[in-house]
Amino acid sequence: MNKPFKAILLFLIPASQTISAEVLQQFQLKSPDQAYTFTFTQEKDATGANRMYYEVQFDGLTIVHKSKLGLLIENEYFENALGVPNDNTNLWSDNISFIGQTTASHDTTWIPLYGESATIRDHYNALTLKFKKGEGSGQGDLGGYNRERTYFMDVEVRAYNEGIAFRYHFPLATNGLFIHITGEQTQFAMPEGTKAYYEMWAQGPFDLLPLANWKGECERPLTMTLPEGTTVCLAEAGVTDFVRTKFELDNTRPNTLRAKMYDCADIITPYDCPWRIIMAAHEPKDLLCREQLLLNLNPPCTLPDVSYIRPGKAIRACQLNQKAVLEYIDFAARKGLQYVHLDAGWYGPEWDKASDALTVGEGRDLDMPAICNYAKSKGIGIWVYVNQRALEQQLDDMLPIYRQWGIVGIKFGFVQVGNQRWTTWLHEAVAKCARAGFMVDIHDEYRPTGVSRTYPNLMTQEGVRGNEEFPEADNNVILPFTRFVAGPADYTPCYYSTKIKTTHAHQLAMPIVYYSPIQFLYWYDRPSDCHDEVENALWAEVPTTWDESLPLAGEIGKYVAIARRSGAKWYVGVLNGNDARHLSLPTTFLDAHQKYTVTRYEGNARLGTRTNVQITQMKKFKGGKPIEMDLEAAGGAVFVITLQ
Fold first, then answer.
1. What stretches of 318-365 adopt beta strand conformation (E)?
2. Residue 468 carries which DSSP code?
3. Number of domains in the chain
4. Which residues pair with 581 in a beta bridge?
5. 569 occurs within a structural domain
6. CA 117 to chain centre
C-alpha cells in the first residue's frame, strides 16, 4: 500500500549555500533504511546557463561524486515545421526552470509468476522534480494548434534499500512537438582509484581496468570496485522502446563515466525514458540476487492468460532428423527435463532471408505435429529456434501455425539490438508471443532490463559469455556479480563435452548458481554421451525457480556460493575460479534447533572416474554449523539439504 510521505526523507537545502555557482535548488532523498542518499542540485553557472547535478552516498560514503544530469535534445527541425520559435541556448536544458516537486513513499509486496523468491517487496521513497522550458503556459487545447515553445520534463528519483534509480519523464505536451534525443548528459563521477569489470560486448571477456584508456564502450550492468572496498554496480531498467545505453569514459573529466546511447531516439509525449540504476554493497556477495530491483522498475503483468508459462529444463537437439529428435525426447523424459529444443537449421539456412520458417526445410524428414504429439505424450514440450530474419518477416503468420503444430516456445536467434527501431520491434514481438501463448528465449547480444515482469513469457536470454565460448572458470565467477545482476542468463551448462575448461562438478553447480527459469542443460551433449552417471539425478530434480535465494559468500573472479530454497529443500551451489581453495560456508539460514541430511556433490580428481564427481552424505547435520569444503581449481560443489 502507499504510505504518507515522511518529512525525514526529503530535505530542501537553502539556496544560500553557494560555493562557486549560484545554487538554485537542492534536494536530498533517502532510502527507507537510510543507507542511500541522493542529492540533486540545480545551479546557474557563470554563463547564466542552468545545470543539473546529482551525487550519491552509501552509508555515508560518496560513491558517485557530483555528476551531470540531463538529455541532449535537438528539436529545431520539428519546431520550424510547426512554426514554433527556436531558442538560442547552447544545450537544450540550459534554460529549463524548476516549477515544483512531489514526494511519495511506497511499500507493497507482489507475487511473481516465478522468480528467485516467492514474493518481491517494492519499497522506496520517491522524489519527482518538475521543470519547464519556454515561456508559454503549456495549457493549450490539445484539439487546437499551439505554437508555444514550451516543454516539460521531470526528473523522477526512487531510493530503494537496494539502490538508487532515476529517469527522465516527459509529460504530455500541448504543442504537438516530437522530441529528438541525441544523447545523454548523465555522468557517473567515481572516486579516484575505482576499477571496473570492463566488458565491451554482451558475450565478451572481462578485464579489470581503471577508468582510463578503454578501447570503447562498456556493457551494462557495469560492476566496479572502489579503493576502500565498496562494490558499485550501474544498470538500466525498463528499456522497451528506447535505445540501448552503455557506458563510456567522459573525456572532459577523469574517473568519470557517461551514459552512451546507441543512437538517437525520437519520442512522443508523454514518455518515460529508461531508468538509470546505482547499487552498492559493502561485500561483493551482497550484489547477488539483485534482479528484483530491475523488476520493480517495470510495469506489472496484465496478461489475461499465463497458464502456458512453465519454467523448466531443456536439451537442444542438434541432430535434426525425426529419429534423432524422438531420441532426445526420450532422453529428456528419462532425465527429468521438460523441454526439447530444435536448433537452427530445421527450416533452412537461418541467414537466408528466403528461408521459410513456416515449414520444414527441404531435405528434412521432420514431421512437426508428430514430434509435438509424441513429446506431449512423454510430458515434454517442444521449442524451436527462429532467426530474427524470419521473425521480422513472418512472425504474425508463424504463431498460429506453431500453435497448431503444438510448439510451446520460440528462441529468437541473432537479434539486432541497440537502436530504437529494433528495440521496439523486439519487445513488440515478445508481446505478440505472450498474447499467442508462447514462451520466449532471446539470443544473442540482448540483455534483460526487468521486462519479464510485464511479459513473464520472456523466460530468459543470452547476453552472456557462456558455454558457447567455453570460457575458463574465472569468467564464470565474475558473471554472478556482473551480468546476473540484471536478471536470468541462458549460459547453457554442458556436462560431457571435452571442450569445457572446468571440472564436471563446476558445470554441475551452474543451474543453482546461475538463475534462469528455462535452463538449457547438456549443451553440446547428445543422449549417447550420457552413461547414466549417478550425479545426473541432481539435474533431474533441481528446480529452475525458487522460493528464496540467499548469497552466502563470494569474491569477484575467485568464487561464489548461493543458497536457494524450493519448498522445504535447500540447494547450495558453489563455483570456484582458477585457484584451489578451502571454504567454510555459513548455514545460518537453517534452524539451529533442527538436524538435517546434507547430500554433497563435489569434485575429486583422485576418483579416476569419467566425471570425478564424489557423492557423500552428512546425517544429523546441525543447522547453523558451517559446511567445510576443499575446492579444486575450476571446481564446484552442490549441497542438497533436507530436514531429518
1. 339-342
2. T
3. 1
4. 631
5. no
6. 16
For residues 137 and 338, give the distance between their C-alpha atoms in angstroms, rounded to a whole number: 59
Question: Is position 243 within any domain?
Answer: yes
Residue 642: CA count within 13 A, CB half-sphere: 5
As given in the structure block, the three cell numbers for residue 550 are 540467499
Give buried/exposed letters for 315-338 (b at 16+ CB in 10 A, else e): bbbbebebeebbbbbbbbbebbbb
The SS3 call for residue 316 is strand
Task: List phi, psi (to 5°) of 509.
Answer: -85, -15
Contact between 353 and 393 (Cβ < 8 Å): yes
Q: pLDDT digit string (tens) for 594-642?
A: 999 999 999 999 999 999 999 999 999 999 999 999 999 999 999 999 9
Q: Are 124 and 275 in contact (CB under 8 A)?
A: no
For residue 491 the three cell numbers come to 549460459
Cell of 520: 538449457
Tell me, what's the pLDDT at 492?
97
Query: Are 563 and 633 within 8 A, CB to CB?
Result: no
Taking each helix axis from N to C end, the angle separating 368-377 and 388-405, rounded to the nearest 10 degrees, works out to 60
- What are residue 335's DSSP bridge partners? none
Domain of residue 14, residue span: 2-296
504: its cell numbers: 564436471
Which alpha helices (DSSP H) does 113-181 contain, by range?
none
Residue 611 falls inside a structural domain: no
> Which one-letter DSSP state was computed for residue 245?
E
- Decide if 298 contacts 450 (C-beta within 8 A): yes
CATH number for the domain including 228?
A: 2.70.98.10
pTM beyond 0.85: the answer is yes
Q: Is residue 255 part of a domain?
A: yes
Q: What 3-state class would DSSP assign to 571?
A: strand
Residue 318, classed as helix, strand or coil, is: coil
Q: Please, are residues 341 and 384 in contact by the beta-carbon 8 Å criterion?
A: yes
pLDDT tens per residue, range 460-477 = 999 999 999 999 999 999
In 363-419, which residue ranges form alpha helices assigned H by DSSP?
368-377, 388-405
Element (H, E) at 121: strand 120-133
Residue 352: is it exposed, middle or buried by C-beta count within 10 angstroms (0-12/13-18/19+)? exposed
Model confidence at 200: pLDDT above 60: yes
**Residue holding cell 528467485?**
116
